[in-house]
Amino acid sequence: MTVTREKPIEREHWATIFAKKLIEEKEEPYNITAGATVSGPLHLGTLCEALYPQTIINCLKDYGKSANFYFILDDLDAFDSVPAGFENYKMEKDLGKPLRYVADPFLCHDSFALHLQEEVKEIFDIFEINAKIFGAFDLYSTGKFDKYVKIFHENFIEVRSILEITSDRQLEENWHFLMPICENCGKIATTSVINFDGETYEYICNKKLYVSGCGYKGKAEIKDHKYKIVWRLHWPSWMDLFNTSLEGAGVDHHTKGGSWYTAVEIFRRIFKKKEPIGVRYGWLFYKGKKFSKSLGVGVKISEILKIMPPEIIKYYLLRPDIQENKDFDPSGYKLLSIYEDYEYASQLEEKAKVEKLSRADQKKYLTYKLSGKRKWSARFVDFLLYYQIFKDWEKVGEKLNDKDGAAYLSKYIENWIKNNLHPEEYNFEISPRRPPRPEYVEKFAEKLREDMTDLDIHNLVYSTAQELGVNPQEIFRNIY
Fold first, then answer.
1. Model pLDDT, residue 447
2. Average of pLDDT values for 52-75?
């Protein structure tokens, strides 16, 4: 998908800061990588893993630079729990297997991972995320990680030392960086390497975790590609594979003992290369709780898109500093305030032509440009109010002189109301009984404003009656 972009604004937004850092420290083409484990339907946290890098890519292209975005779906990660909402699909039989080996409960794809990968592509398209997607299964199956097995085997003692120092823990005596896939039961979580000569490895499937191994003893060769490398080595390996210039990750990876520190040392001491630029993402919460696909904490992206358009979601996620924690709550005035801030930011381009913007407004304006242009002209709150009155989007569009905006926002507002997420003050219905003189009600409603007091509304009845040349009691009778 090709997106036409305007010249960048020279303002301090985190995306432009990292774009400039890349230009100063790395060489073109700039390769940004990201990844996620596909263990359940996408939520906002997974979206951030792709949206943040894409935003930096957009800034680089605004500066006329060549940049690539590679997104790795880790479908070789073990299926460690049945995601919330899938309890009735009898998926327990596949626990411990690589996600690519887990049966699709919907029976429309060869595996659960491929089913979710299709969802990822659809969501990326909606949010204009132009990443080239790779599955870890495909990368390993085609031998892309074989060279790293050789490197880690030849430097085994130093690699082990790096992991112990950077993770601040002592590894088990029989620890190994290979995770074989059991030939008998298909599990990857329950296997251990017994012996490895650099080409052939022997293993046993006997670990007892959230699922137990089958007890099988097997032998395989690296060229069979039935293995995965442990995460702390798998991550720097893919960054080296894609010649990564920059990659971001959550707070947990960037705190003391986190896997980012392992990756840095692997680059410096094993690969003998300069590590990529690292970016730390803040936590993402849903009403105070950390997002989790397996625990069902949060809301699926597909559900959020029913109540919020993509540009509002992007504005919410891109507005704070990238390291700042965000608490998503799409209810009441919290969502209204996001719309209002976005609408305010959309007007700053005209304001900037006649006066200098404050630093805060400069940042809001750039966030708006990075999020996508506004597709409605009237205020969101007015659409919400008028819909409650008329329950007719064509009428709402006429009254607000914004038919396109009414058509665009209609589904979001209807779903917002349907899910009881709108403010209580806007939760009202007009009696379905048609008033004797509906034109009186319409005339009155046209002049209603959000900031009116009870006295203002009372006086509006009398001024409307005077304008129409009727008794105020007629206005009251038709309204009620």
1. 82
2. 97
Higher pLDDT, 41 or 242: 242
121 vs 40 pLDDT, higher one: 121
Torsion of CA 440, 443, 444, 446, to 10 degrees: 150
Structural domain spans, the chain: 14-284, 431-480
Q: What is the pLDDT of residue 297?
A: 47
CATH class of residue range 14-284: alpha beta
pLDDT above 70 for 14? yes
Contact at 8 Å (CB) between 395 and 439?
no
Token readout for 173 is 């005596």
pLDDT value at residue 286: 84
Give the pLDDT confidence of 236-283 residue by residue, as tens digits: 999 999 999 999 999 999 999 999 999 999 999 999 999 999 999 999
